[in-house]
Amino acid sequence: METPLTHNISPGREPPDLAQYEKAGGYGALRKALGMAPAEIQAAVKESNLRGRGGAGFPTAQKWSFVPMGDDAPRPKYLVCNADEMEPGTFKDRMLLEGDPHQLIEGIIISAYAIQADVAYVFLRWAYKLAARRVERAIVEAYRHGYLGKNILGSAYSLEMHLHVSAGRYICGEETALLNALEGKRANPRAKPPYPQVSGLWGKPTIVNSVETLCNVPHIVKQGAEWFRSLSRSDDGGTKLYGASGRVKNPGLWELPMGTPLREILEEHAGGMRDGYQFRGVLPGGASTDFVTAEHLDVAMDFDSVQKAGSRLGTGTMIILDDKTCPVGMLLNLEHFFAQESCGWCTPCWSGLSWIEQILQDMEEGRGRASDLELLESHTRLLGPGHTFCALAPGAAEPLQSGLKYFRDDFERHIHEKRCPWSPT
Amino acid sequence: MLSEQERKEIEAHARHYPNNRAVCIEALKIVQQHRGWVSNEGIADVAEALQMKPAELESVATFYNMIFRKPVGKHVILLCDSVSCWIMGYERLRQHLGDRLGIRPGQTTADGRFTLLPNVCLGACDHAPVMMVDDAHYQDLDPARIDQILASYQQEEEKSTDGNTADA
């Protein structure tokens, strides 16, 4: 089984420096890309069926295709690497950032070339201190060896790249909020249209791609779209970094073919549940995805299959709920996070999420009422897609709506017993 | 007024952006690194240097979780309160840390050594529960491990105090 993304990564070891990365074939894809037309690279990525790995799964080449090209295109154009990764339960990009920063930089340069961007930013979350040091060092090395700056490797193409370390706020991961953060503003999302591809950073054409998406690009260019598609067990091309946390025997991260079944990941790679614990459900792709339960264990972990099962692949990093953890308490924790991290820009989000949090807090403390279930359900509808300015509140509604569906008995017990059944009396 | 060092560091970052405003978050972080937190004076200094209105900069400073608008202790403990850490024992650790330090989340110890803050996902969910102390990550925590970590900071400070005495 091929694992291109993690090929150079060994946990606990220093990442390859530039010389080691080159020795392993690194920057070969960039050399090849500079001999291709930008349109050829876009075509290869389109053919590869690469879908964005930040959570939404939008086809990468299609996103790129909206960028104005040619001599008349507004300048400068920007490419931003979204390395914010603040969704609870998500920890995959950290491995790529810390483990092989040159792979990311090569991916950014090739992707920037494909849309003829002039400047690239790596937008990194505050807490990733080690990643910041390693990415910064790799950028300096890349400049020194002619992979960045003016006339890259003697070509006509020039690109500047900078690391921007954020100051901590979940909403910064939302594409347009991230652009405001880069401009030195509060990270409130922007109205779309105009879309960032046409009018993004400082009003110029901008592409925002996630770390894992960009890391795939050099491999597609180097080995071809057909090879990339062949890595997958589904229609979405490539491999995927899957992760698991919670009470499993072997929590961790694994690069596996896209479309690997949930059961295989949980049982073979995560080692199954810890002794004394039973599986009850899983958020398959981070805190903003719907629960799925034992009946869904055979679902293929790709974008369309997980959607058919009523959830989202999201980031592919799973949070497992066991039988000794209170589902209402888990949802209270999740909704507290979303309420706290709401940017406050639109009323349904900041007001609705705080209300949900309060209802769940009351329930956990024995003050739940029968009418609360209906109230919570109405919130999941009112905060759903189309009712708020961005996707934060709809994301917060996902675990709640599925929690109410699959763990209804647990909610009712809280209300009838006037206490949390999992708390010691 | 910004110190010479603060000014130099801000100018180095400002080169990465097409206008001054864009460097304001980095500038706040630089001031915080040098002064421990961002006071009203810090806001005024950065605003003046970047030709922004102080109120405008204040609105940015209060938005981001890691810009401290109140004084913090010598060491800032960020205990991850996100879902994987919660499942793996966050509440027990919060209680334990609070008991050991004699403070609640959001507070600073009377001797000014530690500030305890809950923090959203620190991105090491496979090693939950986790926390950061200043720039260092600590994973797979339990109460005993927390005691060891706090003791190591105590020992480091004692060594540093001994060193200062010897130097004097």
From TrEMBL, chain A:
Gene3D superfamilies, alphabetized: 3.10.20.600, 6.10.250.1450, NADH-ubiquinone oxidoreductase 51kDa subunit (3.40.50.11540), NADH-ubiquinone oxidoreductase 51kDa subunit, iron-sulphur binding domain (1.20.1440.230)
Species lineage: Bacteria, Pseudomonadati, Pseudomonadota, Betaproteobacteria, Nitrosomonadales
4Fe-4S as UniProt keyword: yes
EC numbers on record: 7.1.1.-
Catalytically driven reaction(s): a quinone + NADH + 5 H(+)(in) = a quinol + NAD(+) + 4 H(+)(out)
Listed SMART domains: NADH_4Fe-4S
Cofactor(s) this protein requires: FMN; [4Fe-4S] cluster
NADH-ubiquinone oxidoreductase 51kDa subunit iron-sulphur binding domain mapped to chain residues: 328-373
Source species of the chain: Nitrosospira multiformis (strain ATCC 25196 / NCIMB 11849 / C 71)
Purpose: NDH-1 shuttles electrons from NADH, via FMN and iron-sulfur (Fe-S) centers, to quinones in the respiratory chain.
Keywords: 4Fe-4S, Flavoprotein, FMN, Iron, Iron-sulfur, Metal-binding, NAD, Oxidoreductase, Quinone, Translocase
Summary of subunit composition and partner proteins: Composed of 13 different subunits. Subunits NuoCD, E, F, and G constitute the peripheral sector of the complex.
Family statement: Belongs to the complex I 51 kDa subunit family.
Annotated signal sequence range: none
InterPro entries: NADH-UbQ_OxRdtase_suF, Nuo51_FMN-bd, Nuo51_FMN-bd_sf, Nuop51_4Fe4S-bd, Nuop51_4Fe4S-bd_sf, Soluble_ligand-bd
Protein name: NADH-quinone oxidoreductase subunit F
GO MF term (any one): metal ion binding
PANTHER family per record: NADH-QUINONE OXIDOREDUCTASE SUBUNIT F
TrEMBL record, chain B:
CDD domains to which the protein is assigned, alphabetical: TRX_Fd_NuoE
Residues the record lists as binding [2Fe-2S] cluster: C80, C85, C121, C125
The reaction(s) this protein catalyses: a quinone + NADH + 5 H(+)(in) = a quinol + NAD(+) + 4 H(+)(out)
Keyword terms, alphabetized: 2Fe-2S, Iron, Iron-sulfur, Metal-binding, Oxidoreductase
Cofactor binding, note field: Binds 1 [2Fe-2S] cluster.
An MF annotation (GO) of this entry: NADH dehydrogenase activity
UniProt-listed Pfam families: 2Fe-2S_thioredx
Known cofactor(s): [2Fe-2S] cluster
InterPro entries: NuoE-like, NuoE_dom, NuoE_N, Thioredoxin-like_sf
Regions annotated as coiled coil: none
Protein family according to the UniProt entry: Belongs to the complex I 24 kDa subunit family.
Designated name of the protein: NADH-quinone oxidoreductase subunit E
